[in-house]
Amino acid sequence: PGDFPCPVLVVQHMAAGFTPGFADWLDRDSLLRVGIARDEETLAPGRVYVAPEGRHLIMKRPGVAGLSDDEAEHMVRPSVSRLFRSVAEVCGKNCAALLFSGMGVDGVKEMKALKEMGAATLVQDKETSVVWGMPGEAARIDAAGYKGSPEDLAGILSAMTAGESGAEP
Q1: How far is CA 168 from each of CA 11, 57, 120, 121, rounded to the nearest angstrom?
Q2: For the purposes of burial, counting CB atoms within 10 Å of the CB of 111, is it exposed (0-12), middle (13-18) or buried (19 or more)?
Q3: Longest C-alpha distance within the chain, in Å?
Q4: What pLDDT tens digit does each residue of the chain (169 aa) get?
Q5: How far from 39 is each of 42, 69, 159, CA to CA, in Å?
Q6: Residue ranges per structural domain of the chain
Q7: 99 strand-pairing partners
Q8: What topology is assigned to 1-91 in CATH?
Q9: Cα end-to-end distance, the chain, whole Å
Protein backbone atom coordinates (compact mmCIF):
# COMPACT_ATOMS: atom_id res chain seq x y z
CA PRO A 1 0.00 0.00 0.00
CA GLY A 2 1.04 3.59 -0.54
CA ASP A 3 1.10 4.21 3.20
CA PHE A 4 3.37 1.25 4.05
CA PRO A 5 4.95 2.26 7.38
CA CYS A 6 8.41 0.76 6.86
CA PRO A 7 11.36 1.28 4.53
CA VAL A 8 11.97 -1.52 2.00
CA LEU A 9 15.51 -2.57 0.98
CA VAL A 10 15.82 -4.45 -2.32
CA VAL A 11 18.67 -6.52 -3.72
CA GLN A 12 18.05 -7.62 -7.30
CA HIS A 13 20.46 -9.78 -9.28
CA MET A 14 20.62 -8.36 -12.80
CA ALA A 15 23.02 -7.65 -15.61
CA ALA A 16 25.13 -4.49 -15.56
CA GLY A 17 23.34 -1.41 -16.82
CA PHE A 18 19.81 -2.47 -15.88
CA THR A 19 19.49 -1.39 -12.24
CA PRO A 20 18.62 2.29 -12.87
CA GLY A 21 15.90 1.30 -15.34
CA PHE A 22 14.59 -1.32 -12.91
CA ALA A 23 14.34 1.28 -10.13
CA ASP A 24 12.62 3.76 -12.48
CA TRP A 25 10.13 1.08 -13.58
CA LEU A 26 9.33 0.20 -9.96
CA ASP A 27 8.94 3.88 -9.12
CA ARG A 28 6.43 4.37 -11.96
CA ASP A 29 4.42 1.25 -11.16
CA SER A 30 4.49 1.31 -7.35
CA LEU A 31 2.51 3.33 -4.85
CA LEU A 32 5.80 3.74 -2.95
CA ARG A 33 8.70 5.99 -3.93
CA VAL A 34 11.60 3.95 -5.31
CA GLY A 35 15.21 4.97 -5.83
CA ILE A 36 18.78 3.72 -5.87
CA ALA A 37 20.18 3.55 -2.32
CA ARG A 38 23.00 5.88 -1.29
CA ASP A 39 25.64 5.42 1.39
CA GLU A 40 24.64 6.88 4.78
CA GLU A 41 21.09 7.44 3.52
CA THR A 42 18.45 7.91 6.21
CA LEU A 43 15.67 5.40 5.61
CA ALA A 44 12.11 6.69 5.41
CA PRO A 45 8.83 4.81 5.86
CA GLY A 46 7.10 3.91 2.61
CA ARG A 47 10.26 4.30 0.57
CA VAL A 48 12.01 1.56 -1.45
CA TYR A 49 15.81 1.51 -1.68
CA VAL A 50 17.35 -0.57 -4.48
CA ALA A 51 20.96 -1.73 -4.17
CA PRO A 52 23.13 -0.03 -6.79
CA GLU A 53 25.03 -2.07 -9.35
CA GLY A 54 28.13 -3.76 -8.02
CA ARG A 55 27.71 -2.68 -4.39
CA HIS A 56 26.26 -4.42 -1.37
CA LEU A 57 23.32 -2.69 0.31
CA ILE A 58 23.54 -2.96 4.10
CA MET A 59 22.02 -1.55 7.27
CA LYS A 60 24.75 0.49 8.95
CA ARG A 61 22.77 1.38 12.05
CA PRO A 62 19.10 1.81 12.92
CA GLY A 63 17.40 3.86 10.22
CA VAL A 64 20.52 4.26 8.08
CA ALA A 65 21.50 2.36 4.93
CA GLY A 66 25.03 1.86 3.76
CA LEU A 67 26.88 0.61 0.73
CA SER A 68 29.80 -1.79 0.79
CA ASP A 69 32.40 -2.89 -1.72
CA ASP A 70 33.13 -6.12 0.18
CA GLU A 71 33.79 -9.22 -1.91
CA ALA A 72 30.95 -10.80 -3.86
CA GLU A 73 29.01 -13.54 -2.10
CA HIS A 74 27.52 -16.48 -4.01
CA MET A 75 29.27 -14.87 -7.00
CA VAL A 76 27.06 -11.75 -6.80
CA ARG A 77 27.39 -8.20 -5.59
CA PRO A 78 25.00 -6.92 -4.38
CA SER A 79 24.17 -9.94 -2.26
CA VAL A 80 21.00 -10.75 -0.33
CA SER A 81 23.14 -12.65 2.19
CA ARG A 82 25.15 -9.52 2.98
CA LEU A 83 21.97 -7.45 3.37
CA PHE A 84 20.22 -10.00 5.59
CA ARG A 85 23.27 -10.35 7.88
CA SER A 86 23.46 -6.60 8.36
CA VAL A 87 19.72 -6.39 9.02
CA ALA A 88 20.03 -9.17 11.61
CA GLU A 89 22.86 -7.28 13.35
CA VAL A 90 21.05 -3.94 13.37
CA CYS A 91 17.36 -4.87 13.64
CA GLY A 92 17.32 -8.35 15.15
CA LYS A 93 13.81 -9.78 15.03
CA ASN A 94 12.25 -6.39 14.21
CA CYS A 95 12.21 -6.91 10.47
CA ALA A 96 10.75 -8.97 7.67
CA ALA A 97 12.88 -10.81 5.11
CA LEU A 98 11.51 -11.84 1.71
CA LEU A 99 12.90 -13.96 -1.11
CA PHE A 100 11.30 -13.85 -4.52
CA SER A 101 11.87 -15.89 -7.67
CA GLY A 102 15.54 -16.37 -8.51
CA MET A 103 18.37 -18.85 -8.96
CA GLY A 104 20.86 -19.90 -6.34
CA VAL A 105 21.02 -19.77 -2.57
CA ASP A 106 21.83 -16.10 -1.93
CA GLY A 107 20.16 -15.08 1.34
CA VAL A 108 18.79 -18.52 2.20
CA LYS A 109 21.02 -19.35 5.19
CA GLU A 110 20.69 -15.80 6.51
CA MET A 111 16.90 -15.96 6.18
CA LYS A 112 16.95 -19.08 8.35
CA ALA A 113 18.99 -17.20 10.98
CA LEU A 114 16.51 -14.32 10.89
CA LYS A 115 13.60 -16.73 11.35
CA GLU A 116 15.36 -18.31 14.33
CA MET A 117 15.73 -14.79 15.84
CA GLY A 118 11.96 -14.31 15.54
CA ALA A 119 11.84 -12.16 12.40
CA ALA A 120 9.09 -12.62 9.84
CA THR A 121 10.33 -14.57 6.81
CA LEU A 122 8.37 -14.83 3.57
CA VAL A 123 9.05 -16.51 0.22
CA GLN A 124 7.34 -16.53 -3.13
CA ASP A 125 5.54 -19.80 -3.82
CA LYS A 126 6.51 -22.26 -6.54
CA GLU A 127 3.33 -21.66 -8.53
CA THR A 128 4.07 -17.96 -9.13
CA SER A 129 7.89 -18.12 -9.33
CA VAL A 130 9.68 -18.09 -12.66
CA VAL A 131 12.62 -19.82 -10.96
CA TRP A 132 11.97 -21.36 -7.54
CA GLY A 133 15.66 -21.57 -6.63
CA MET A 134 16.19 -19.16 -3.75
CA PRO A 135 12.65 -19.31 -2.34
CA GLY A 136 12.51 -23.07 -2.87
CA GLU A 137 15.76 -23.63 -1.01
CA ALA A 138 14.54 -21.39 1.82
CA ALA A 139 11.33 -23.44 2.03
CA ARG A 140 13.34 -26.68 1.95
CA ILE A 141 15.45 -25.72 4.98
CA ASP A 142 12.42 -24.33 6.87
CA ALA A 143 13.60 -20.72 6.63
CA ALA A 144 10.23 -19.49 5.37
CA GLY A 145 7.50 -18.61 7.82
CA TYR A 146 5.12 -17.83 4.98
CA LYS A 147 4.81 -18.85 1.32
CA GLY A 148 2.57 -17.22 -1.25
CA SER A 149 2.19 -15.17 -4.39
CA PRO A 150 3.66 -11.65 -4.35
CA GLU A 151 0.12 -10.35 -3.78
CA ASP A 152 -0.40 -12.76 -0.86
CA LEU A 153 2.92 -11.72 0.69
CA ALA A 154 2.05 -8.02 0.33
CA GLY A 155 -1.19 -8.68 2.20
CA ILE A 156 0.65 -10.53 4.96
CA LEU A 157 3.15 -7.68 5.36
CA SER A 158 0.35 -5.12 5.45
CA ALA A 159 -1.45 -7.12 8.13
CA MET A 160 1.74 -7.48 10.17
CA THR A 161 2.51 -3.76 10.07
CA ALA A 162 -1.11 -2.96 10.96
CA GLY A 163 -0.83 -5.29 13.96
CA GLU A 164 -3.70 -7.49 12.83
CA SER A 165 -4.32 -10.58 14.89
CA GLY A 166 -2.91 -13.78 13.47
CA ALA A 167 -0.40 -12.03 11.22
CA GLU A 168 2.57 -12.56 13.49
CA PRO A 169 4.96 -15.41 12.61
Answers
A1: 24, 26, 7, 10
A2: buried
A3: 43
A4: 788 999 999 999 999 999 999 999 999 999 999 999 999 999 999 999 999 999 999 999 999 999 999 999 999 999 999 999 999 999 999 999 999 999 999 999 999 999 999 999 999 999 999 999 999 999 999 999 999 999 999 999 999 999 864 554 4
A5: 9, 11, 31
A6: 1-91, 93-160
A7: 123
A8: Rossmann fold (3.40.50)
A9: 21
